[in-house]
Design goal:
single chain, about 350 residues, alpha+beta, three-stranded antiparallel β-sheet, three-stranded mixed β-sheet, elongated
């Protein structure tokens, strides 16, 4: 029986319905991430993270040379204020601390700076450095430090054929897809040799989510596409992960347990580079149009098995999308399938920082 030919108007209506749903899901990301970063767990982590000193480049080198496995370091008294005690017999890690003294402030021409009363204004000036000891968290005992809420890898199977269709889309953009080591991340996109790599030891649900994330990078962040947009690493990760959320949601995979924490962490990185008073919601919302367009482009190829149901979705359009999906599966050639997997090793507790995983 020959499949019915649908009118251009019906196809346009189906596309409009899909984009409307994508926009609603994009708004959901903004809301969920905002709720997450305003929650008690995230706020407690921020309060502790703010107490850790940001060390100079020279001190970072000294820390690396003396204790390369250090994850969070602080002085003896600082650890006490955090409810932890340096273990007996531990040797401190030496770093340089500035020696300061109060001096009269001067202008570049050497004239004195005066305060409101006409007296010489005082300021602190670094006059030298001395060695002090700090200790890594592994050298201490006591109250557990809060960790930044981390993305949780997805478990279980992926929708039938989704990996192959995503792979076909990425390959159509001129990239090769492979499975293998990603240097600690779940996926990586190399623009030098046009390769997209996904970890081989993750469940299929996570594998397709990661491949959708990398497809977002392929569409949005190739060097030529980034010119003039000022896309920093933080914003780039927010965009790619948001694309992955929309694509997998359209295929019936709920990746929220991974996406919301991941987007929150990278949105904070982008927020730091944004104009003053920019909120996390502003950062994510600003990516909306690009994210929805990229997700829609991918879904045009991957064709979710059923239409997103709304009151405005005609049954004929729903049937059309089912027919398109069946045709796509019928013409699908054998491609790289998700590799055999093993349980990923748990991450080491301690350092409050954004995880590099995707």
């Amino acid at each position: 029986m020959r499949a019915r030919q649908y009118s251009e108007a019906e196809r346009e209506q189906a596309a409009a319905v899909r984009r409307e749903q994508l926009e609603r899901w994009q708004a959901e990301i903004v809301g969920k991430v905002t709720d997450l970063v305003n929650g008690a767990e995230w706020q407690r982590w921020l309060q502790v993270a703010a107490k850790f000193h940001q060390y100079s480049f020279n001190n970072q080198i000294m820390l690396m040379l003396q204790r390369p496995d250090a994850t969070a370091v602080a002085g003896y008294q600082k650890w006490r204020t955090l409810g932890r005690q340096v273990n007996a017999g531990e040797t401190g890690i030496k770093i340089l601390a500035p020696i300061t003294k109060q001096v009269d402030q001067q202008r570049p021409d050497g004239s004195a700076v005066l305060d409101a009363d006409g007296n010489p204004a005082k300021g602190m000036q670094v006059v030298g450095y001395r060695l002090v000891s700090v200790f890594d968290v592994s050298q201490t005992s006591g109250r557990d430090l809060p960790e930044q809420p981390r993305p949780q890898l997805l478990k279980g199977a992926a929708p039938d054929g989704l990996w192959e269709r995503l792979q076909g889309f990425v390959e159509a953009q001129g990239f090769r897809v492979e499975r293998g080591d990603c240097g600690g991340a779940n996926g990586v996109t190399s623009y030098d040799d046009n390769v997209v790599r996904v970890r081989a030891d993750i469940d299929d649900a996570q594998a397709v989510k990661t491949l959708a994330h990398e497809a977002g990078h392929v569409l949005l962040h190739q060097p030529d596409a980034r010119q003039g947009l000022g896309v920093c690493r933080g914003r780039g990760e927010v965009e790619a992960e948001s694309v992955a959320y929309l694509v997998t949601a359209a295929h019936g995979v709920d990746s929220g347990q991974y996406t919301f924490s991941y987007v929150a962490g990278w949105a904070e990185t982008a927020q730091a580079a944004a104009p003053k008073d920019t909120t996390l919601a502003d950062v994510i919302s600003a990516t909306g149009a690009r994210v929805v367009k990229a997700a829609d482009t991918i879904l045009t190829t991957t064709k979710p098995p059923t239409a997103v149901q709304t009151d405005a979705t005609p049954e004929s359009v729903t049937r059309e999308m089912r027919v398109d999906q069946a045709l796509a599966q019928g013409h699908q050639t054998a491609r790289t399938r998700p590799a055999a997997r093993r349980e990923p090793a748990p991450s080491r507790a301690g350092h409050p920082t954004v995880a590099p995983a995707r």
